[in-house]
Amino acid sequence: MMAGAIHAVEARHPPEYVGESTCESCHPAEAADWRRSHHAQAMMLPTRQNIRGAFDGRSLSADGKTATFLTQGERFVVRVEENGQSAHDYDVAYTFGVFPLQQYLLAIDRGRLQAFDFAWDARTAAQGGQRWFALQPGKTLKPGDPLHWTGRDYNWNSICAPCHSTGLRKNYDASQDSYHTTFSDIDVACESCHGPGTVHVAWARSAKKTAENTSDPVKGLLVVLGHASGGWSDYSPQTGIRHWVGPRRTSQTLEICAPCHVRAEALSDPLPGAPLLDSRVPTSFDQDIFQADGQIEAEDFEYTSFLQSKMFRAGVICADCHEPHSLSLRKAGNALCGQCHAPARFDTAAHYHHPQGSPGSQCSACHMPTRVYMGVHVRHDHSFRIPRPDLTENIGVTNACAACHADKSAAFLAQKIREWTGASPMPHYGDVFAAARAGAPGAEHSLESLAADPAFAPIVRANALTHINDDATTLKLIETSLHDPDGLVRLAALRALQPYDAATKQRLAWPLLDDPLKAVRVGTARLLGFLAPQLGGEDAAHLTARVDEWIATQRDAAERPESHLNIGALKSEQGRTEEAAEEYRAALKLDAHYLPATLNLADLDHAAGREDESFALLQEAYRLAPDEPDAVYAFALAQVRRGDKGAAETTLRAGLRRHPNDARLTIVLALVLKAEGNAAAAGEVLKAALQANPNDAQIQDTLQNLQPSSSEP
User: Fold this and answer.
1) Predicted confidence (pLDDT) at residue 524 exceeds the cutoff of 90
2) pLDDT tens, position by position, 338-366
3) Residues 88-109: pLDDT tens digits?
4) What global pTM score does this model have?
5) How far apart are CA 204 and CA 220, in angstroms?
């Protein structure tokens, strides 16, 4: 079993990438395994051998777009007709992926490579494959939309390349809004995991084969992988499970896979083997990405799911199941799980309660339920959970049983499991998160208990911290969590500290400016950055240095308007309003329809008393995005400020027709109605909203404040 460690290399000899062919010259067996892997086919030149799709003149029309796939000599061409424009031919620059689908990168202007959103289904015809299909069915998108195939969310240089090629240099030129992207290997090659190899190659080629040199355990490698000083126990007679005995391996080896198998905000290019939180900030249990119990909803790329699992906490690593060079499973079927779970106990009908050899007898069917992404890609949830149809009953999450038994109710399935186990289901943190999402009474106390309980995985405790509100009890929990040994918990505690006053933030968070993990350091800098103009001496210099480190993480994504928005927001908090405005304008230069930058720019104008300029911006924002609640809310408030309550009422009612459960729009409409002298109508609006949002404290408070006091006639 593998263990890993990252080693520093002398600054005067920074390692460089040597390329896969150099590695293969000494490691042919590993290279042969790798060539069979999807890593080796993550991106390829468009040759007849590498192209899977049928470029034979066939066409696909969907969502206002027609694409014809052609071969012209040795060139593979996609002819695109859309939005009433004349057809345009794009050369395929590279293949992208290989199975179960293959996409194609098309070169457009300024060095951009874009992943075309019609893909080839590489499955067999019997499986429904061997066809072109749309990746975004039902969406008619126009150029300028981030999700249009020419938009920033389909851009290879910034979104895809870091995990599909090796030794990547994005080389974005902000002054020209262009790329000059390079890589050392076109695909995911040796040095993606082992790190740049010049120092190792120099060691290997050294003519001085002294005893000291040949016995060097580091051998010039940036990341050293080898056998861990430990091993697996025998199967426990009590549980039938093997346990790792020896130093914990997970934190070392998982970091190699994590940067490309996590849904996260990127801070910088990852250094192979370095802690994930030095280059990425993983997404928390956002309800658009994870269900309330932590199951996958949208793509999470495995890492965050795995952190929830008992396997992770027991020391299991990716390489225990996946051979790291070929990526094949180490054993087939249930034998894979049998490496740690005694087959005599677990691979039996008495355990899985299905006929032997049936789909329901497979461990993965119950403990790794699947979802389909990108149209045809079946992916397993890596949280290795027990099927819980009772949670489907209680909080509406999915359950593995229903994948095969869609005709059975959740109540029926839950009862079956109770009959098999002879026990009632245990409490689950999903109940807590579901209650928090619904704003249920008592949820706050449950979240605090969950966040404080070391029996739960750090990712679960961190998520609980991101949901809590501020009170005296919570502040004590936050203070403790800021010193938690797990970086995810410390990072979540920083976010939970956001609502507190400046003195409290500074007192509790300041020590984390020197946290060993970049994500925590720069997160602290962002939290405290507003203080920089108020400080002096060494404190000011120290905070400014960390703020500059945070700004560098944003500049690393300077091609995205979000980075300018984030920097602008900090500049605004520091009172540097003109610099903030420049950042918002830079965001709008990249995307003229980027709503958050428009709203923030309008806020700056409003604060400076430039009401006409502010109103004009908000009016335009509403014209461009009448379906966005933020645009509706801001424009309605601007109309109120101008004394046009009737127009504000019209705007709000239009917004509520599209978003009937939006509490902010409801509350503002009620206040406008009251200001117009129609308190009864305001009350009816709020009462109707409470039926849809019975636990919304703001709606409740607003309704209470509308009631006449006992002293009124």
Assistant:
1) yes
2) 999 999 999 999 999 999 999 999 999 99
3) 999 999 999 999 999 999 999 9
4) 0.93
5) 9
The pair of structure tokens assigned to 379 is 């992916």
pLDDT band at 1 (very low <50, low <70, confident <90, very high): very low
285 band by pLDDT with thresholds 50, 70 and 90: confident
Whether the ω angle into residue 713 lies within 30 degrees of 0, i.e. cis, is no
How many alpha carbons lie under 13 Å from residue 578 in its C-beta half-sphere? 0
Identify any residues that bridge with 610 across adjacent strands, giving them in sequence order: none
Residue 219: predicted pLDDT: 85
Helix (H, G, I), strand (E, B) or coil at 466: helix
Q: CB burial class (10 A; 0-12, 13-18, 19+) of residue 237?
A: exposed
**pLDDT tens digit sequence for 597-636:** 999 999 999 999 999 999 999 999 999 999 999 999 999 9
Measured between alpha carbons, how far is 291 from 285 in angstroms, rounded to an integer? 8
- How far, rounded to the nearest angstrom, does the alpha carbon of residue 518 sit from its chain's CA centroid? 18
- In this structure, are residues 221 and 194 in contact, taking their beta carbons and an 8 Å threshold? yes
**What beta strand segments (E) does 41-142 contain?**
43-44, 59-62, 65-72, 75-82, 88-96, 101-107, 113-115, 118-121, 131-134
The separation between the first and the last C-alpha atoms of the chain, rounded to the nearest angstrom, is 80
Q: What is the dihedral of CA 13, 15, 16, 19, to 10 degrees?
A: 140
For residues 103 and 111, give the distance between their C-alpha atoms in angstroms, rounded to a whole number: 19
Give the pLDDT confidence of 564-600 residue by residue, as tens digits: 999 999 999 999 999 999 999 999 999 999 999 999 9
- Helix axis angle for 663-675 and 679-692, nearest 10°, is 170
**pLDDT at residue 402 in the model:** 96
524 touches 509 (CB < 8 A):
yes
- Rounded to a whole number of angstroms, the CA Rg of the chain reads 28
SS3 (DSSP) at 155: strand
Torsion of Cα atoms, 47 then 48 then 49 then 51, to 10°: 80
Q: Nearest Cα to 278, choosing from 553, 519, 459, 489? A: 519
Q: pLDDT tens across 656-680, in order? A: 999 998 999 999 999 999 999 999 9
Cα 392 to Cα 77, 99, 309, 419, 429: the distances in Å are: 47, 32, 20, 17, 14
Q: What is the pLDDT of residue 8?
A: 42
- What percentage of the chain reaches a pLDDT higher than 70? 95
Beta-carbon contacts of 273 under 8 Å, excluding residues fewer than 6 positions away, are 4, 5, 6, 195, 222, 223, 252, 255, 256
The interaxial angle of helices 561-573 and 537-555, nearest 10 deg, is: 160
Around Cβ 322, how many Cβ atoms within 10 Å?
Answer: 16
Instruction: Assign 249 a pLDDT band (cuts: 50, 70, 90).
Output: confident
Whether 310 contacts 461, CB under 8 Å = no
Q: From CA 554, how far away is CA 110, in angstroms rounded?
A: 21
- Which amino acid would we find at residue 585? R
Q: Residue 416 and residue 422: Cα distance in Å, rounded?
A: 10
Q: Within 13 Å of residue 114, how many CA atoms lie on the same side as its CB?
A: 21
Count Cβ atoms below 10 Å from residue 664 Cβ, excluding itself.
18
CB-based burial of residue 645 (10 Å sphere; 0-12 exposed, 13-18 middle, 19+ buried)?
middle
**Partners of 173 in beta bridges:** 178
